[in-house]
Design goal:
CATH superfamily: Heme oxygenase-like
Number of helices: 11
Largest sheet: none
Strand content: under 5%
Shape: globular
Structural class: mainly alpha
Number of domains: 1
Enzyme class: hydrolase
GO biological process, one term: thiamine biosynthetic process
Protein name: Aminopyrimidine aminohydrolase
CATH class: Mainly Alpha
CATH topology: Heme Oxygenase, Chain A
InterPro entries: Haem_Oase-like_multi-hlx, Thiaminase-2/PQQC, Thiaminase_II, Thiamine_Salvage_TenA
Order of helices and strands: HHHHHHHHHHH
Bound molecules: 5-(aminomethyl)-2-methylpyrimidin-4-amine
Helix content: over 70%
Family: Belongs to the TenA family.
Length: 220
Amino acid sequence: MSIVERLLEDSKEIWETFYTHPFVQGIGSGSLDHEKFKYYMIQDYLYLIDYAKVFAVGAAKAFDKDTMREFSAYTDSLMNGEMEIHRSYMKRLGITEEEAEHCPAALDNISYTSYMLRIAYEGGPADVMAAILSCALSYEEIACRLKAQYPGCWEHPFFGEWVSGYISEEYHEANQKLIALMERLADGFDERQIARLSEVFKNCSRYEAAFWDMGWEMKK
Ligand SMILES: Cc1ncc(CN)c(N)n1
């Protein structure tokens, strides 16, 4: 079993809750209240700014130039790629970037990004990757499952853009590179070290579940 397979296996019960979550199901069926989606979008925009910083810390912690390049490239693709989906939605929802950046972050949001940043600052590059991976991989899996369950959801006039972004070849390829980087950084790790990575990945998966709850309940 590869390292990433092991991380996924140890967190699979938590991941199952993502697919049936009412917020996620609402995106797939198209029935999600737009106010809830708007709240989530703003929170996620704020989240991604800090998430990009986790990659930047990864670049600073890297032991070699190739790893440094990979972490920095992802920082850039987040700011100019994934966040474009958010900017496009914010435009449609009538929120400026400045307004979004001045919205108070929800406590579950702050807790999640603070945890990732703490792991990144305290640990090595493999820990940084373990903190990053649940976020990156879970959205691809969620969007693919939604497409299988609701075949037309990626063309939905409102939620389709969200689904399309996370089922895209581009997002998939970026994730494959992250998986390869995780495997490379943890190469030769013993059971104690792998268990540590799994704990970080699991905690981030728990935070992912809390983030869906935050969106659904519009928790401050
Ligand atoms: C909270 C959260 N988790 C994951 C993703 C997908 N990168 C995201 N945009 N936001």
